[in-house]
UniProtKB/TrEMBL annotation:
Protein's UniProt keywords contain Ribonucleoprotein: no
Coiled-coil intervals: none
Cellular component terms per the entry's GO annotation: mitochondrion
UniProt keyword list: Chaperone, Mitochondrion, Transit peptide
Main location group: mitochondrion
Cell compartments where the protein resides: Mitochondrion
Organism superkingdom: Eukaryota
Name of the protein this chain belongs to: ATP synthase mitochondrial F1 complex assembly factor 2
GO terms for biological process, alphabetical: mitochondrial proton-transporting ATP synthase complex assembly
Family: Belongs to the ATP12 family.
């Protein structure tokens, strides 16, 4: 019987993997993938980055059960169970996610470069929750973020080429977002002194049903996936790009990251760039966003991999 269960589980993981390939979550060209690996491997431990010598030989994943929690998966370093920085047992609910995290640990060489282990870091944050976050705090913060979203602010003094890029790349996404959440009525701002309403969507006591966007967040995300959603938003400096990426309006992480740095890329094209520095930053941005997207997809597989699109609570 266990053999049948293992076969079914392997088949499920295989199907999930194929669906991820179709979604182009990590849609980098072979050259971009190789360059990313090389750049991240050359990043040293200088500055604030800490490295610890690898102390384990083997990494494994094991199923576990408890009275308070259904089946979950733990990471083992040799015979020791992995724990979070807060001293909590490290575990995840999805087997593929556990396998990916175990690969992060197995891929470490002589030294453990924790700053390259984005899935591990994200799960640590979710388990320890050092900021004492809850859904209401995160939904309110993401709602506020919309008012300073990167792609709402066009450069009024830009030359024709940048203006064209913003109009053709950013504006369609803003229009799409407004169609999806019509009560928000987000507007593009081209002047530095355009009014910004920081009380946008707020009430004295935050309620998750106050607009269609917070309904969407409340229905489709639990606390852990909201933490990952917020992480993507901070990386891209855009809630709109985050939703578009998760909803597959944007087809790949690479495309989303390029849109997030559209103005910078235009400046690089005009004036050049310090290649090693900017390339490392771009590679790390792709890695961080990719990890968070994978975390959300795997944590919400019934919503993201079965349904074509997410829904949001627009029923009164």
């Amino acid at each position: 019987m266990s053999g049948i269960l293992n076969l079914n589980r392997l088949q499920l993981l295989s199907n999930l993997s194929k669906q991820f390939n179709n979604l182009k979550v990590l849609n980098f060209s072979p050259i971009a993938q190789k360059q990313q690996q090389q750049l991240l491997s050359t990043t040293s431990s200088s500055g604030n980055r800490k490295e610890r010598k690898r102390f384990y030989k083997q990494v494994s994943i094991s199923e576990a059960f408890s009275n308070t929690r259904p089946k979950h998966y733990e990471i083992n370093l040799d015979k020791r169970k992995l724990k979070t920085p807060g001293g909590n047992l490290f575990s995840v609910d999805n087997e593929m996610l556990g396998q990916m995290i175990s690969f992060e640990w197995q891929s470490q060489k002589e030294y453990i470069k924790q700053y390259t282990m984005h899935l591990t870091s994200l799960v640590n944050t979710c388990i320890d929750n050092p900021g004492k976050l809850n859904k209401e705090i995160l939904m309110s913060s993401l709602n506020d973020y919309l008012q300073t979203d990167t792609i709402l602010y066009f450069d009024s003094n830009s030359i024709a080429k940048l203006d064209y890029l913003q109009e053709t790349k950013w504006r369609p996404l803003v229009d799409w977002f407004n169609e999806k959440f019509p009560d928000l009525k987000l507007s593009i701002k081209k002047e530095i002194d355009d009014e910004v309403n920081f009380d946008f969507g707020k009430t004295e006591q935050f309620r998750p049903d106050m607009n269609s966007f917070t309904k969407y967040l409340d229905k489709n995300f639990d606390l852990n996936t909201l933490i990952a959603f917020n992480y993507i938003t901070e990386c891209l400096k855009s809630t709109i790009l985050t939703v578009a990426l998760l909803e597959r309006k944007i087809q790949s992480v690479e495309e989303a990251c390029n849109l997030a740095v559209l103005e910078q890329q235009h400046q690089y094209d005009q004036w050049g760039k310090v290649e090693w520095y900017h390339d490392i930053n771009e590679a790390e941005l792709r890695s961080r966003v990719s990890a968070a997207v994978l975390f959300i997809y795997l944590s919400n597989s019934s919503k993201y991999l079965v349904k074509k699109n997410l829904s949001y609570a627009n029923q009164h």
